[in-house]
Known about the structure:
By secondary structure, the chain is of the alpha+beta class. It folds into two domains: 2-116, Rossmann fold; 129-295, Tumour Suppressor Smad4, CATH 2.60.200. The protein has helices at residues 16-27, 42-52, 64-74, 91-95, 102-115, 139-149, 151-157, 159-175, 237-246; strands at residues 2-7, 31-36, 57-62, 80-85, 118-126, 129-131, 134-138, 181-185, 190-194, 196-200, 206-208, 211-213, 225-230, 257-263, 265-278, 281-301. Strands 1, 2, 3, 4, 5, 6, 7, 8, 9, 10, 13, 14, 15 and 16 form a 14-stranded mixed β-sheet that branches.
Amino acid sequence: MRVTLIVNPVASSVTRRTRIVIQKALTSDHELNVEETTRKGQAIRLAHRAARTGAEVVIALGGDGTINEVANGTLGESCWVAPLPGGSTNVFARAIGYPNDAVEATDTLLAALTAGSVTKASVGLANNRAFLFHLGAGFDAAVVERVERRGQLKRYFGYPWFIASTFAAWFEEITGSGSSFTIEAADGRRVAGARLAIAMNTTPYTYLGANALHLAPEAGLDQPLAIATLTSLSPRMVPILVAATKRARGLPTVAGAHHWSDVDKAIITAKQPFLYQLDGEAMDPVTELQLDHYPAALNMVVPVAPLSNRGPPPATDNAAS
């Protein structure tokens, strides 16, 4: 097969040795072209060009931001798309069943290519920009912005830096005015005064080391979006969130928290600009986000026997708030 490998050379776990091993493995059975990114956003253009010039498979070697860009460059195209984990967390690759080691994941990918293991994968859209596993608005995005502000610390300290950033962002939110917004689904479900909203296209929401953190276990590449919201960031929400990540049904709908399933369209609005992030990448603040579910948007290469961590669907919150 004609394969294009798009590499982010500065991703956290992409090394020269890893690249050599991966490229050698891919060239053993496939015609390989390698492209390297030099700036943010470039992988979108490289992936789009590859898809339009005959690549049958486009592979992203990098973090979640790299596979997000490759997905945005190949939406609606006939080529197959696949991730190889080269970042610090690699949520999407792990969520669909790939090992967290890039070399091991390459063996898994080669087996999937041989077997033709491809699924029609949905994406979420936020103001027409695709996300593969989740979008976060408000507090969640504030954490990501803080982490990315000092990217070198993320690269060298990993999870401890993420945890420290979470506590720092939380302290700012509860001691300051923070950002709040209204989120409304097309079917009438509505939450006002939200401080955090996470729209999910896969599960888990993220990983903390080897531990998967689930907020909406029913989310999946063949399902509409799931959305979790919080209207309170008080300390009493901490045990609810911790319990939610460990329970089969995810975040419960209780005072201050809402869990929606089967969302095809929703809109987030605010009087003042609010932060948001797509697949772990901080975006420019906005006052309005249109969320859409785009089914069968990508031909995603998945492991022959993908991992499954989905649980039973939660009770859907249909009440207006």
